[in-house]
Structure formats: structure tokens, C-alpha cells
Design brief:
GO biological process, one term: actin filament depolymerization
Oligomer: single chain
Helix content: under 10%
Structural class: mainly beta
Pfam family, one: Cofilin_ADF
Keywords: Actin-binding
Protein name: ADF-H domain-containing protein
Order of helices and strands: EEHEE
Number of helices: 1
Number of strands: 4
Radius of gyration: 16 Å
Shape: elongated
GO molecular function, one term: actin binding
């Protein structure tokens, strides 16, 4: 199994060059709230967040499973 190094990455488009640049990288222990706090109020940003969750069993024979999904955000 792999080990998480980063929880999220925030990108911005550099106004001078027009290229995508990394604005902030969140550590493995950071949360969604840390991502939300890192977004500026009046500037556009794009983010990818690694979201963890636990599934709910649909029957008595199944066990809960830990899962993860990548979520993409556009902040305007």
C-alpha cells in the first residue's frame, strides 16, 4: 500500500506567463478546512484534494472499507 505525502495541491494561473503554477501544497496531516483557509478571497485558484471516507456495509456479511477519492475544485 502507498503512503500519502500530500493531502492537497492548490494551483493558480500566472498572469505574466499564462502558465499553471503550484500555489500551495498541503501536508499529509492537513484537512479540507486547511485547504479552504488557504484559498484567497478574491483570486481564482484550482485545487485537487485527496478525500478519505469509510463505506457503510449494505449487508451483515460486509465490513466497512476505507476508501479515497481525488476531488477537483475551482475557486472563483
Amino acid at each position: 500500500m502507498w503512503r500519502r505525502v500530500h493531502r492537497y495541491i492548490v494551483f493558480k494561473i500566472d498572469e505574466k506567463t499564462g502558465l499553471v503554477a503550484v500555489d500551495k501544497v498541503g501536508g499529509a496531516g492537513e484537512s479540507y478546512y486547511d485547504l479552504a483557509d488557504s484559498l484567497p478571497d478574491y483570486e481564482c485558484r484550482y485545487a485537487i484534494f485527496d478525500f478519505d471516507f469509510v463505506t457503510v456495509p449494505q449487508d451483515l456479511l460486509s465490513l466497512p472499507e476505507r476508501r479515497g477519492r481525488l476531488s477537483c475544485f475551482s475557486w472563483h
